[in-house]
Each structure stands twice: as structure tokens, then as C-alpha cells.
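Predict the 3D structure for this chain.
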Amino acid sequence: MSEKNETLILFLASIIPVGLVLGGLWFVFGRGSSTPIQITNQIISQCNVPNLPEGTFNYGGSTTWATIRRDVDPVLQKLCPKFVFRYVDPPSGNPGSETGIKMLIANQLNFSQSSRSFKPEENLAAQQKGFTLKEIPIAIDGIAIAVNRNLNIPGLTVAQLKDIYTGKITNWQQVGGVNLPITPLTRPKEAGGTVEFFIENVLEQKSFSKNVQYIGTTTEALRKLDAIPGSIYYASAPEVVPQCTVKSLPIGRTSTQFIPPYKEPQVNPSDCPAKLNQLNTEMFRKGEYPITRNLFVIVKQNGQIDQQAGEAYANWLLSLQGQELLEKTGFIRIK
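Done. Predicted structure below.
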């Protein structure tokens, strides 16, 4: 074999393995799919929340936010794993907007979730700790009225609802139903923002009547509604409307126009849980449903990482992605 041919063979023997390696790299990384570097960049770019700090942050408060904590917050946690937020129950009593704000003022939470505005006296208590409170509205919520599913009644006006809970109306016969005593259920006032909102906006600051029964949680109330034929209860619409064991009532400012908190037609109980009632979000958004309120992130204004964390969390909920997720959870977007 000539020296020239030997040189050619040696050259090919050395270049072929290199070509195979380069070809393999192209096969793995260059066929139009994302390379590992590109994938990493995509993951990083998904956490695009401005001013989001790193660390572990405690939060809690309103029970109305339970579905948000379950369905929405994990999305942010997955997108931004270096921003860890941990739900904290109150050291005593039941969770709620009031206890959440108290824990925030006591520096037990970094930010809190509320179904009502903070009160002047709460801001004064915060000032005594060296900071003020700031509320950031992130969504609209409807208050649904639930009764036993066998109770037949077309609806209630807000005034009738007030009279039921203040003791002027005590029998369903007085509002077009059957001769059956009414058993009003409520969580205690100190439980949270939903009760305070109800007292202020429905009862017009009147006190609950003596026949009102107090319960600890919405779960307990739903069990009682199922067991007591004449019972009635109020709670955040996403907590009540999809339930199979109770019925949500249409509510009106007048008796000539009842607005259901669910989309019509109402799901037949026999079809539940394969089909669930959907929230009447359009009526909530338009303000035609008469009992709605805002949800707030309550933030410390102290110029520190607490404020940064609370504001960044609220701003993410106000982003396009956050608003879409809140709407899927049953709340009404405000942006």
C-alpha cells in the first residue's frame, strides 16, 4: 500500500469518530427541540414576578382564600421555587381575616389574606409596632346563601335575609315556603371577614337574633344544612355553589328580580357530583348579584422584605396568569 493511501486511511479513521460525535450531539440537541440550556432558560424565565424575594414567608388568614391556597398558590410555588410561602394557622381560635391581620401585626405572618378591608383600629395597632397596613384588592367574591336541598323557595331579598338573621322572620312560610321553622347558622363574628361583611352589609350593623346557631367552620355548616330541613347559611360562593348536599338560593334587591349565584339551569341533584353547579360570575362582575365584596392581600408597609414579599405576591395575582387562575377557582377577576 502506498504511503499516500495509508495517510488517507489514517485521516478518515481519525475524522469519522469526530463526525459521529458531532452528529450525535446534533441528534440530541439540534433537531428543532429545546436544548437543556434552552429548557433551563425557559424555566427560569417563567418566574418573571418583579421584585420577588427569595426565602420562606409565612402567610394565612381568611378561610375564603382556602381554594386559592389549594389551586392557585401552588402554581406560583412551582414557577418560583426560591419564593417559599408557608400557611400558618392561628395559635388559638379559628382562622379568618381578623385573626390573620392580628397575626400580621404580631409579626407572626409576613403578609395575610383577607376578605375585608382592615379596620382603623387595626392600622393603629400596626403603627404602634412601627409600620402601617396596606390592602391590595385582587379579586371579587360573591356571598352565596345555602339552604337544605329539599327546601322549595324561589329566593330571598336582602331585606328578608336581614330579617331572618335578626329574628323578625322565623318561619319559611313568611317568605313563601312551607310551614317550617328557620334555623339560621353562622360562624361567630370573630371568625373572620365574611361574618363581619355580612353584619355590616346585610344586617346593617344589627345583632344576630337569639335563635341563630353558631358553628365553627363551613364544613360543619354544610353538614347541619343537610341534617336540618329549615336551616340556612351564608359563605363565599366558591365554597357553597358547587356543593351537592345543599342548595344555593337566588338573591335579589327586590322580590321582582332574584339573581342566582349559579349559572342556569341549575344542576339536578341526581346528576351531582358528575355535574356541578357553576358560578354565575357574569352577574357578580356586573354587580347585578346583590352581595359581593373584594378580596385583599394585607401588606406591612415597613420598607422591608415583608412588604416586598406581600406586594410581589399580590402583583402576581393581578397578572394575566394570576387573574385567569383566580377566575378558574371561582372568583371574579378585577383586571
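The chain has 13 helices and twelve strands.
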